[in-house]
Amino acid sequence: MDATTYTRIVTKAPFHDEGYGFDVFGLHPPALASVVSASAPIYERYFRVDSAGAERIPKRGPAILVANHGGVLPVDAAMLCLDVLRRTDPPRIPRAVADQFVPGLPLISTLFARFGVVGGTRANVRRLLERDELIAIWPEGVSGPAKRFRDRYRIQNWRVGFAELAIRHRAPVVPVAIIGAEESWPKLASLRRFHMFGVPYLPIPATPVPLPVHFHIQYGEPLYLDRGLGPSDADDPGIVAAAAAQVRAAVEQLVDDARTRRRGVFR
Amino acid sequence: MRVLVTGSTTPLGTALVDALLAARDVELVLATGVEREPPRPIGPRFVYRAVDLRHPRALHDLLWDTARECGIDAVIHGMQHRRSGDRGPRVHAQNVDVTRGLVLGCTHHPTIRRLVYRGFGEVYALRATSDLLDEEEPLDFSANAPQWVRDRVEADLTVCAHLAGGLQIAVLRCAEILAPNTGSQLWDYLGSRVCLRPFGFDPMLNVLSVEDAVAAFIAALRSSEIGVFNIPGCDTLPLTRAIVESLRADIPVPGSLMAPLYGLRRWIAGFDFRYDMNVRRFHFGGVLDGTRARSVLGFTPRTPVRWPRPWWHLLIERLGAERESADQGLRPDPRNLPDRAPTRTTR
Question: Is residue A145 part of a domain?
């Protein structure tokens, strides 16, 4: 275990303790620090995560990371959260917003809660932004991992709720491209009739474990969607859709640039 | 301010009456309860009426005779049936009909201007994603909910239906008050030596102390704001941590076994805890968001709860406190001594 990383997260990361070492959503910094330091070999040696532009993440205040999504399981989300924790100083704990079914999964729901994952409800996200936290959102939701391999890196169903929140709470949006997840763990098939614990489908991966694909994470310039707007403009569907489209275009551009730059899937 | 308090013989009601009488701006407290004995000695500022409000005539007479004579201008309604296992029309009458009658009576009353209603956080329909529950969360209208919940939802909506009228109404949806004899399901759950919980789930809970509940009611009484306010406590923690704080053994079991095991325990030992009432809370948690109460009423929870620890631990704590006081040559302050061992509600 990497003692430096552990100490850095436990002592330096801003955290709203409710009195028992947990925040209101169940985040427990020592648990998060343990998993971050224990997963260092996966991050550094297996996926060899290579990131650029992490300095564009605001050091304080509310902010939203918006990224593309792919792969059988959310390995891309895990790598992004690890990257943010390791490359921000003081470390900012990214609060990943999970899909509706995740908090209903046994064990996983509890583990994710300890690592800072929250359910995607309006009240949850509002509280986080009011407390100046950093949120990570994948607007594609399940449609990102559910897409076919030939559609990799093509943005799927793009939800707009994050844009409404960004305008209402005056939070800058940092577009992020994650490259590598689609090839790391491609999907072979989906069992669409499997809905145990509320999951939308059961993915059948093409490989038993993720392949050691070289991950690239590229952070874009922050977008201030609220510029020239008031909080009440967040109620206007047209304004919200336009703001979400602006972020989508920025993410697509980052994805295209990063794919062009990479020398190969495993290199 | 002249205040009518219903349910004054409950632990919350008693603490509320004491706090009201300690407040300088309260001229008179008219307390009601079904017990013959008042919760404290009658005095010049304290009037007690033993009355069963389930009888419409008794409720009418209380409002239009005693309350009018006393010049009551505010009502705190906290009377609800506490035991979760009881059901039927008499329980419904106490939970819902009394509330309806009281609201209607207050609406047309010549002196009453404000009603503070004790609601319950349990009225919310818990979902997997509802970590934080604000006042806009959907209520639990499921047909298979126990009467304990259905009555509270109905009473809550009955009060909320009059929010736009001339009477100033504040509905305080309180988190669970963790104290003996308050109808607390968690108190009963944590009172046993072994606490079973569904395997794979460790939800966040929030519990309220009697002191904070009283502070919230007094803040609502002094305010003129209308609406629904969530009242959380200052203890927010995972279920496993609550079990540890209560010095109990935590055993995770498959969720499907929880209901039969606790049903058996309830049948054999007569405990009040019902797993079917808590199943969603024991999976998904749900913490009340007190932002509105803080910004509008100025209420912030400050007093932690006292956990239902075993009798031997309370005895050790008590002896320790007494010894410490004796060393300092002082008599121990009874308010600082730990409570007695948790009591169990029997059938």
Answer: yes
Contact A120 B130 (CB under 8 A): no
Q: Residue B11: inside a domain, yes or no?
A: yes
Of B204, B241, B255, the CB nearest to A25: B204
B255-282 burial, b if ≥16 CB within 10 A, otherwise e? beebeeebeebbeeeebbbbbebbbbbb
Is residue B270 in a domain? no
Helices (H) and strands (E) in chain B, counts: 14, 14
What's the gap in Å between the CA of B235 and the closest CA on chain A?
A: 7
Cβ-based contacts of B243 with chain A (< 8 Å): none
**A130: nearest Cα among B303, B237, B213, B132:** B132
- Strand-pair category, B204-208 with B235-238: antiparallel
Compare CB distances from A100 to B128, B285, B287 and report the shortest one's residue: B128
Chain B (104-163) residues lying within 8 Å, Cβ to Cβ, of chain A: 128-134, 136-137
The 10s digit of each residue's pLDDT in A212-255 is 999 999 999 999 999 999 888 999 999 999 999 999 999 999 99
Same domain (yes/no): B337, B225: no
Q: Do A25 and B202 touch (CB under 8 A)?
A: no
**d(C-alpha A98, C-alpha A184), whole Å:** 21
Q: How confident is the model at residue B127 (pLDDT cuts 50, 70, 90)?
A: confident
The number of domains in chain B is 2
pTM (whole model) above 0.90: no
Find the chain A residues whose C-beta atoms sit closer than 8 A to any C-beta of B: 18-20, 22, 24-26, 100-107, 109-110, 113, 118-121, 123-124, 127, 130, 198
A80 domain residue, yes or no: yes
Chain B residue with CA closest to A130: the answer is: B291
Write the CB contacts of A42 (distance below 8 Å, at least 6 apart in sequence): none
Chain A touched by B200 (CB under 8 Å): yes
Query: CB distance A19–B136 less than 8 Å?
Result: no
CA-to-CA distance for B341 and B321, rounded, in angstroms?
16
Has residue A228 been placed in a domain?
A: yes
Residue B124 gets which letter from DSSP? B
Kindly report whether the peptide bond that precedes residue A90 is cis, defined as omega within 30 degrees of 0. Answer: yes
Interface contact flag, B128 A101, Cβ < 8 Å:
yes
Q: How many domains does chain A have?
A: 1
- Three-state secondary-structure class, residue A3: helix
Are B289 and A103 inside 8 Å of each other by CB? no
User: For residue B341, what pLDDT band results from cuts at 50, 70 and 90?
Assistant: very low
Full domain range(s) for residue B170: 2-181+208-234+287-297
Same domain flag for B344 and B215: no
Instruction: Output the domain CATH number for residue A126.
Output: 3.40.1130
Helical ranges in A131-264 per DSSP H: 143-146, 161-168, 181-184, 237-261
- Residue pair B179/B342 in contact (Cβ under 8 Å)? The answer is no
Nearest to A110 among B129, B202, B235 (CB): B202
Count of beta carbons in the 10 Å neighbourhood of residue A47: 25
What number is the ipTM of this complex?
0.87
A123·B289 Cβ contact <8 A: yes
CB A155 within 8 A of CB A244: no
Secondary-structure breakdown of chain B: helix, strand, coil percentages, each rounded to the nearest 5: 40, 20, 40
